[in-house]
Here is the input.
Amino acid sequence: MKYKVVLQESEEGFSISCPGLPGCWSQGKTEQEAIENIKDAMREYLAAVEVSRS
Here is the structure.
């Protein structure tokens, strides 16, 4: 499944969120770091949702 993300430059680097997963966000010093971090955050978010459904 694919999710869209929103990447925004901030004073600290980049913030990134996934509107399809409310509350799922991350950040990074570079765009690439932020993208890698949101991938991890999304995996953890989806794993937590799966556990709560069990």
